[in-house]
Amino acid sequence: MRLLCGLLLALATSLPAQQPEIRQYIAQSWDVLARSMSDCKSVVDQKVRTTPILYLPAGMKTPGAVAKMQAECHVDVRSLPRPIHRLGDVRPSEIPAEGLLYLPNPYVVPGGRFNEMYGWDSYFILLGLVRDGHADLARGMVENFFFEIENYGAILNANRTYFFTRSQPPFLSSMIREVYEHPASGQQPDAAWLARAYSYAERDYALWISPTHRVGATGLARYRDLGEGPVPEMADDSTYYPDVIRWLLAHPGVHPEYLVTDTSASCDATASKVCAQAVVDGHRLSQDFYRGDRAMRESGFDTTFRFGAFSGSTQDYAPVCLNSLLYKYERDMEHIAMLLHRPNDANLWSKRARARRAAIDRYLWDAKAGLYFDYDYVTQRRSGYKYITAFYPLWAGAAGPEQAAAVRAHLKDFEQPGGLATSATVSGVQWDAPFGWAPVTWLAVSGLDRAGFHADAARIATKFSATVLAGYRADGTIREKYNVVSGSADVQVETGYKSNVVGFGWTNGVYLEMQDLLHQ
């Protein structure tokens, strides 16, 4: 371990010398990962491998660029069955032929099997785009989210028809502020743009306080997908659900309620190829497990044992991450309302933020442990599962000085030679130890820096940057995730997504942000 730390430190000190090479890779990656409605590679979906179909909003005339792509790329262009005003207005089952949803502006995809514009990925991609001088592309991506809200009812998990039942972690207010206020973003959009952005952000926020996402009378929110059964995008990983069943059979004392033998208590094998494959020796996954599995995917943390085995109980929790994001959302909206000279709106947002912070302190803050935990509102207990999202309240500004200091004292539970592990638990899945991910590492680093722990922030940024650099020097790529114990891109996942995708949008963006922090 000491030798590994020394090697990573040596890499860290060599970062400046490596900057031109890795920066060039990142600069070129924006073009490699860029997609548009005039580009044949945009419509390919490795997750379901069906004939490329592009869907337009109901009533929309075919744009010229789409007509050209239709002819050149042999794309089947169709219209959605009716206008969509909110999440759930159209069910994926009503659109049996899965396809890409039209977006008006170019966008950057994460990479690999993720060949569409994602919700929370885009925030970290946008950070890199603005930092790297692509403000117009960043603004276009934010406006694509406005288009989704207007035409698809919400910011979707990603712009595919099978995502019509869920969103992703709410970063829209943060993206709006990055585009409008970031000193590196170039020419600032005008007040009319900000007012338009504000109206769409109001509509996005409304989703998260709706009854579907509300956690009883706690004042907190949860993740919740409106669909049922296994997700169709797992068609390219037909072993995932059987692997989960085999794990549960091997651990009979862990969530036995997730397994059933009665087919009527599971999913419809006649309606879903993925469901038909999700069986081992007559055992299937319960309907409630699939609800948790879907909610987990809205959280973006797929997969972790944070919300039960394979997060099969996600819908039962008020998570630290989501409620921290919503607290920041409310403070962002207060700030934007003031910029727009709407003091009454600003007061309303301030009131909402104060109420949410009180709920976070009541339900998610464990004063004895000195850490934030997710709250299981079914059992009415905090989970006790140590997770990197405990640093989100520092980033969001929801943690007081004493709380921030207490969370900082738990760095020892997460810090490894190559950065921060996602959890303190080795579960064999990708969103737990020993793996580290760029987005949550950046929020922890940024949160520590905001709370005044600058040396900790710099140290962790140096470690994670060195890990990314080590992976780049090994094979010339930047990856989706890393093993922060070995300080490498050697990621061995036992169950779930086993690949380590090349690209990678959010790692590129976070690397640039960390370098800027270290230079400061």
UniProtKB/TrEMBL annotation:
Keywords: Glycosidase, Hydrolase, Signal. One of its GO terms (biological process) is trehalose catabolic process. Pfam families: Trehalase. InterPro entries: 6-hairpin_glycosidase_sf, 6hp_glycosidase-like_sf, Glyco_hydro_37, Glyco_hydro_37_CS. SUPFAM superfamilies: Six-hairpin glycosidases. Residues 1-19 form the signal peptide. This is Alpha,alpha-trehalase. It comes from Granulicella rosea.
